[in-house]
């Protein structure tokens, strides 16, 4: 199986509700239509069954996201330890990560689409320490 891999370049925070900020990473899904569609499915069907796996390889922290319900999809996101260490600690503290998909065709038609997943904060801390 060919798993799409996204290299993280831009991180930030998304305001959720009145005063809650969630760590957010932008990923360019324009070349991965099956991943681009996940945010739409998430909005309609809910997130379903999601698992995440983390590993550190030298300066990289690799986060694999696997969704099995309501659709099956797997993708990986690669963070730079040197550039994103503090951000990753914030993700561990919150226990969630929001992906802002940047498919320019979809973004021009409507608001950018979002996909949020729960993250095992303890496992993430072990990966980055």
Strand content is: 35-45%
Number of helices: 4
- What string, H for helix and E for strand, traces the elements in order? EEEHEEEHEHEH
Q: How many structural domains are formed by the residues? A: 1
Oligomeric nature of the chains: single chain
- Largest sheet strand order: 1-6-5-4
- Biggest sheet features: 4 strands, mixed
Number of E strands: 8
Unreliable residue runs: 103-109
- Which word captures the global form? globular
| SS-based class | alpha/beta
Overall average pLDDT: 82
Q: What distinguishing features does this structure have?
A:
129 residues, 4-stranded mixed sheet, alpha/beta, 8 strands, 4 helices, single chain, 32% helix, globular
Please explain how this structure is put together:
- With 129 residues, this protein is of the alpha/beta class.
- The chain has one domain (5-128).
- The chain has helices at 33-45, 81-94, 104-109, 121-128; strands at 5-7, 10-16, 20-27, 49-57, 60-69, 73-80, 96-101, 113-118.
- The longest helix has 14 residues, at 81-94.
- It is globular.
- It starts with a strand and ends with a helix.
- The relative contact order is 0.23.
Structure, briefly:
This protein has one domain (5-128). 32% of the residues lie in helices and 44% in strands.
